[in-house]
Amino acid sequence: MANGDEARRQLIERGAAADEVELRRYRAPWPVAGTRAERRARRRVLGWWALGGAGGVAMAATYLFWPWRYVAPGQEGHRAYVLYTPMLGVTFGIAVLGMTVGMILYAKRFLPSEVSVQRRHDAEGTGSGEFDKETLVATASDATARAGLRRRSVFARVAGASVAAIGAGAGVTALGGFVKDPWQHSRSAEGPLDTLWHTGWKARAGEKVYLRLAAGDPDEIVLAGPGSVAAGGMAAVFPFRESERGHPELLAEALHRADNPATLFRLRPEVALADRPGRKALGYGDYYAYSRVCTHLGCPVSLYEDQLSRLLCPCHQSQFDLKDFGTPVFGPAVRALPQLPIALDDDGLFVATGDFTAPVGPSFWELRT
Ligand code: FES
To answer: Which one, of 138, 170, 103, lies nearest residue 13 by Cα?
Structure first.
């Protein structure tokens, strides 16, 4: 045994004696290095860590290169799009599993096993003395030496590489906004930054945008009119353009786009609205439409208390007052529900006369309302 090891060993024994600790067993798991059993155990640990590292690399690659843009059902690439989020989860799971199982196996097979017995002391608030601290450090470094971290430097290298790979995967996802340009496909003739600032309700080329009721069948198109909702009632609506008829992928996109869902309300005639300049004109008679996406964290705001004309979000109990044009009156939401301006066309059907009055959903940067 080298002099340093011997000195450390003696210090441990002195420390144990001073603390009245009886070391019943204190042995390195592999006193003889390089046996077949040790090599087999080492391969298993390294294999799990390598798997964890591969998971981290795969997660970063998935985030960077997997097709993540929305593809409607039936279109080429839809299956890959649907698998984007599960792939992130699976690769992250592999990374964590590999590292964790590797760490457990390493601790079980390569850290020294020790059985000690000590009488319980009362330090009476004096803390540890210098001698106690020295023996603690000696014990820790002895465990490191016996675990073979220096001798088996491949452990440190593979574990370090795996941690680096997982860190790279997590870092890429955290810094993804700098890697991927979220505005990339959002510059159009109608102006820049279109995707985040506008929804499917925005008029295109002067075409009418109807309020389509959720009929349950994605192919059945039912348009909303004044008779669609009873007084005190509500209905979920989605944008529809005649040019989309007969195009399943366009119809599906209108139904699935996250910021499209809106709710059409028909208030009771006796409901008195707050005095907000210009807001009554965005409705039609007793009919008003608002975004269905909660401004707190984006849950569907779908519970309506007709007596109070309040909308309740089931996730964190935010309440929005329809008498005050969707202003939050309770709970964590701080922004009003964006209102959808509506009118009645010549055929007696509701149409949206513009996009929502504010960006939909939870707050993001550049938001002023
Ligand atoms: S998501 Fe609606 S209250 Fe939190």
So the answer is: 138
CA dist 106 and 173 (Å) reads 29
Model pLDDT for residues 153-203, shown as the tens digit of each residue: 777 788 888 888 888 888 887 777 676 665 555 555 555 555 667 889 998
CA dihedral (186, 191, 197, 203) positive or negative: negative
Query: Which ligand 1 atom is the nearest neighbour of the CA of 333?
Result: 3
pLDDT on residue 21? 79
Distance 318 CA to ligand 1 centre (A): 6
Please give the distance of CA 161 from its chain centroid, rounded to a whole number: 26
Other beta carbons within 10 Å of 236: 16
Q: Which two tokens stand for residue 97?
A: 């599993």
Closest-CA residue, ligand 1 atom 3, reads: 316
Q: Which atom of ligand 1 is nearest to the CA of 316?
A: 3
Find where tokens 């790279």 sit: 168
Counted residue by residue, the chain has a size of: 369
pLDDT at position 301 is 94
Q: Could you give the residue range(s) of every CATH 2.102.10.10 domain in the chain?
A: 194-352
What number does CATH give the domain 194-352? 2.102.10.10
- Other C-beta atoms lying within 10 Å of the C-beta of residue 284: 19
Question: Which of 29-33, 222-226, 232-236 bottoms out in mean pLDDT, i.e. has the lowest?
Answer: 29-33
Residue 144: predicted pLDDT: 75
Q: Note the pLDDT tens digit of each residue in 319-329.
A: 999 999 999 99
From the alpha carbon of 362, which atom of ligand 1 is closest?
Answer: 1
300 close to ligand 1 (CB < 6 Angstrom)? no
**Cα diameter, the chain:** 98
Contact call for residues 151 and 33 (beta carbons, < 8 A): yes
> What pLDDT is attached to residue 179?
65
